[in-house]
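Sample pair:
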Amino acid sequence: MMVVSKAMPGITIYDADSGQAICRAKVGVSPHEAAFSLDGQYAYVPVYGSTAIGLAGTDEHVLHFIRTSDCSAAGTLDTGENKRPHGIAVGKSGTIYLTSEVSKSLLLIDPNQRQIIARIPTDSPYSHMIAVTPDEKTIYVSNVQSKTVSVLDVKDRKLEKVIPTGAENQRMTLSPDGRWFVTSLGPEHKIAFYRTADDQLDFTVAVDGQPFVARFSADGKYLYDAGHNAGQIRVWKIDVAQRKVVATSSDDIGKNTGSLTVNPFNGLVYVDDQATNKMSEIDPQTWKVTKQFTTDKTPDQIAFTVVRGK
């Protein structure tokens, strides 16, 4: 399990079963997100900058390549004018997809050559997070403060359409069956399900708080979302077929969520807290916290892989 630490700043790789740290790597000013290579041998860590989205601060422009065996540096890519790189994903082809808020674009990066091979416009300076279809033909981009989602045609390297969401949207995820792309509309206290078939809003689910980041269970029956309510982290379990919340967390998970991720190997749900540097493991059946441990400062993105080499 990799956890990005904004304030370290860098990443920590943990044994996901024990919660024990294996190694740490420091990078530049406040990384937010990261992803693993397909073979688990590398972590890709973009450095964002000294502030939050939409606020003045440093505009960083480096993507780090880090070995997962010992967290040693394997190389870097200077993204140049493509500053504030943030949302990152790796397709089945191995291609790295990375947003650049300053250049209003999505970068396609060859991890072997460590170079940018294409750039697709998003039409927003707030292009923050992405969801990539399994066939890598379409990418959905959440443009937080623009209150839109960009739909990108990867093959033709073009912006296909821009979808108004009516409110600031945070984070993106796709249902396992490819039927929906989902984003959290925090100010409206609801989670929006859009059909991938026509990019139209299908339905929304209301929650008692501000949703922030969502992920599906492996079978697609449930959507898990972490957000906030009255200064505390709230986590919701949504039955997709019933289109309603069926469980809400009552445990002390913290105050300011950075990320929620589902462990793909056992289905456990992980939520981190940037305020108290705490990681909570949640049983998806009982919706109770089963384990907590301390992380490095200001944890954000969480990712899982099998480490297969040195």
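The chain has one domain: 2-303.
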